[in-house]
Write a structure and sequence with these properties.
This protein has seven helices and six strands, in the order ααβαββαβαββαα. It has about 190 residues and is α/β, with parallel strands linked by helices. It has a six-stranded mixed beta sheet with strand order 3-2-1-4-5-6, with helices on both faces. The longest helix is centred in the last third of the chain and has 20 residues. The protein starts with a helix and ends in a 5-residue tail after the last helix.
């Protein structure tokens, strides 16, 4: 089990050191990144996330592990508790990586409603970048609204997207993230 995983990871790193198969090596190493059971970890759907800096600050204060998951390279601070995960492949590869690894004790930050639905079903806490929490009670309506808006845009009835991100959204996000962390700590999860 663990020896095989460690040997596979060492092989992946040696391939990366040789500079060969860069995309495959990134996916190979990402396959082994998970958070220990009983700890709180934050998974960031990072491609278009406007609150990454806020997540880093809050996670640092609470000593939480952060997985910054994207389809392409994203700069992240050089901290041992922040891991960049570059997932090559199709458009949904980052979503799949996150959804396959989260469980109770995880916090997922995403604006992607189908990803939020998958993570809620896995037991994770899910927060949108505007601070809106996605829950079992709210996700059905969020999915229905998303589908309706997609149809209206396709028909040309509605144009444009969501309103611009504001300072009020940033504040609401920070409050929602702190509440989610406190809820998980009260439930026995640690950093």
């Amino acid at each position: 089990g663990n020896d095989r995983k460690r040997n596979s990871l060492m092989f992946c790193r040696s391939v990366m050191n040789l500079g060969q198969f860069a995309l495959a090596a990134g996916a190979c190493e990402a396959r082994f990144m998970t958070s220990p059971a009983g700890t709180i970890a934050i998974y960031v759907d990072a491609d278009a996330c406007p609150v990454k800096d806020e997540i880093y600050r809050v996670a640092g204060r609470h000593r939480l592990h952060v997985f910054v998951v994207a389809n392409s390279f994203i700069n992240v601070p050089r901290e041992p508790w922040i891991e960049r995960v570059t997932v090559p492949g199709n458009f949904d590869a980052a979503d799949d990586w996150i959804a396959e690894r989260v469980s109770r004790g995880a916090i997922v930050v995403t604006a992607d409603i189908p990803l939020a639905d998958r993570c809620i079903k896995a037991g994770a806490e899910v927060i949108g970048p505007t601070g809106k929490p996605f829950t079992e009670a709210s996700i059905g309506m969020a999915l229905a609204t998303r589908d309706m808006m997609e149809d209206l845009r396709a028909m040309g009835t509605v144009q444009g997207g969501p309103k611009p991100f504001s300072q009020k959204d940033r504040s609401a996000f920070l409050q929602a993230l702190d509440l989610a962390i406190q809820r998980l700590k009260r439930a026995g999860f640690g950093g």
